[in-house]
Design a protein that fits this description.
mainly beta, four-stranded antiparallel beta sheet, 3 helices, 24 strands, 42% strand
Amino acid sequence: MNYKTSSLFKCQLIGLGLLLSSVGCKEKRENTDINGSEDIGIEQKKGLYRSREFTKPALFPSGIEGPAVDANGILYAVNFDSTGTIGKVDSNGKASLFVNLPEGSIGNGIRFNSKGDMFIADYTMHNILKVDMDTKEISVFAHNADMNQPNDVAIMDNDILFASDPDWKNSKGQIWRIDTDGTISLLEGNMGTTNGIEVSPDNKTLYVNESVQRNVWAYDLSPTGDISNKRLLMKFEDFGMDGMRTDVQGNLYITRHGKGTVVKVSPKGEILKEVQLKGKTPSNIAFGGKDGTVAFVTLQDNGNFETFDTEHPGREFVMNK
C-alpha cells in the first residue's frame, strides 16, 4: 500500500469515528430530554407544591380566614362578600353564601367535629359558635368574657376543642380548652400573641404559634386535653405567622403572613419545604380535594383561595372521613 492510499484510509477511519461519536452524543442528549435530567425532581414532575388560584380575587374581603373542609368535601371560610358571614366553595372554585352569623358576631377559625357539626371562633363576642349543618341553626356552644378574641381553633379526635386567644394590642395571648359539653378551661395565660393552633395526628401533641414573637411551641397532650412539657419547636427570624395544619405524617404547614409562603415543617422542627404563593398575606390553611392532599390557603390581600398539591392528606381530612 502506498503512502497516499494509507493516508486516505486513515482519514476515512477518523471521519467515521467522528460521525459515530456525534450520533452517540445526540442520542444521549435526546434520551436525557425524554427521560428528564437529574435536576428535575419527582415533585416537579408531579406538580407538587406549585400554588395556583382556586377562586377569583376579591370574592372575600380582607378578613378571609378559617378555611375548613367538611366530610362531603365542601370548603368553607369566614367573611364571604361581607364580614359576619360564612361562605362555601365547591370543587370548581365557585363560592356562595352559606350562613349569616348572629348580629355582632365575626368568625375566624372553623373546625368540624366527628358528628359533622361546624364550630366557629367568634372573636368579637367571645364565643365558640356551633352550626347545625342540616338546619343551619347557629347556637352559642361556649362563651367566656375573659377571652380576648378567640382566633383559631383545633380539635382532637375525641372532639375536644382548643382555641388560641391573642391580645394584639399588648402582644399577649392565651390558650383555652373547650370540652364536649361546652365547658371552657384556661390552659395557659401570659403567652405571646397566640394565633395558629393544631393537634398532631396521634393526638399526643398540641402546637401553638405566637405571631409577633415568631415562636412555635409544642406541648404534650393528654387524652383529656391537658397540656404539659412545653418546648420551643422552632423560631422564625423574619415575618409573622398565622394558621397552621398537620398532615397525616405529622408535618406542620404554617402560613407566613407578610412573606407570602407556606412552610412545611417536620415534627422535629426542621423546615422541609417552603411554598411560594401569589399573594403576600396568607391567613390560614386546610386540606381537601378528592383524597385530602390538596392544600387550600386563604389570602387576605387578594381576597381569595390559592391551592397546591402535596404528597400526604391532611390529618383533619382523614379524621372527618
